[in-house]
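Q: My labmate handed me this sequence with no annotations at all. I'd like to see what the chain might look like in three dimensions before we decide whether it's worth expressing. Could you predict it?
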Amino acid sequence: MDFSKVPGVLGRIVAGRVQDYRDADPDLGAPRAGERRFEAALRGPSLSLIAEVKRASPSEGAIAPLDPATAARAYEQGGASAISCLTEPRHFDGHLGALREVVGAVALPVLRKDFVVHPAMLREAADYGASAALLMVSVLGEAVGEYLEMAHHLGLDALVEVHDERELDIALGSGARILGVNNRDLTTLNIDLAVSPRLIRRARGAGFGGVLVAESGYRTAADLGPVRDLADAVLVGSSLARSGDLARATRELLAP
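A: Here is what I predict for the chain of 256 residues:
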């Protein structure tokens, strides 16, 4: 694939990952059984939380020097339904070892959050014990369906992420079972909390019966009001990571 046309900040991040995996082996190996643990965890009776182990970001720089395992256990104690672990090193201060640490620390399903540009990244996610991987339509475009098949071959769930109507239509056509709507435009880093409600309604109106996740920009329980009766789950990183008391911040965010 040619990733050179991915624009803005996202394009710079993707270019780094393309270089990281330019010589990687694309072989996925034998099929692996899928348990759909990540999907099942987000289908609870109330709004589920994917709490993110996030040490830094392009928009905020250093956030908090979290120990991955300690942070994941705190999120679990606070009531999170799943954990997201960033593994991108340059902009998010993540690494694959953190994924292994998180998987080993909690009973919750874990999402490998990275900028997937190569099949080897999915194989790594499965090898390191992740239950799911992030697939971004803004990066993969029409190829997201092919990468979704790869994820399922490896027994992984996939959080297929979109930011606008065009990307949503591609995701709906890909056969995705879990759709994430990112309020942050990763080309500019601007956040608009109206994006998730709008696109979630569009997805439901198009007949999508899978799991819908609202992502980015949520800081308080009140912020979740517009998506509480629309989304199945929310993904929250920065506000929890910098809170100083991750378990308490998780409980407060989930308060009805």
